[in-house]
Amino acid sequence: MEKYGKDKNNEPNQEPPLLYADGAEYLEINKGAVAFYKLIQTMGFEGFNGYLAEWVNGNLDNPTLFNDFCQKAVTHIKSSEKREIRALFETNEPYTNNTTNSN
Asked: Of 83, 85, 86, 94, which sees the most CB atoms within 10 A?
């Protein structure tokens, strides 16, 4: 979090949403890591690991897209938290870490 967004307001380039960042000229450092950290916090470590294993095992024979992975991950979280998680991956809304890590 210390590096994410540090100079974002001073950057003249337009940053794409994370889902559409392949080949982007500019992407804020650690944007993906921060978004996945929030996803893991929301799903819980065991829930995320279970989803990840399910995804990998179900897609061994087919190449998959990051977009598909993220869209389906959202189906595994509570309805009340879906908007925030979708915003992290699909929009340029800023992320604020309003929870503390207990690990």
From this structure: 85
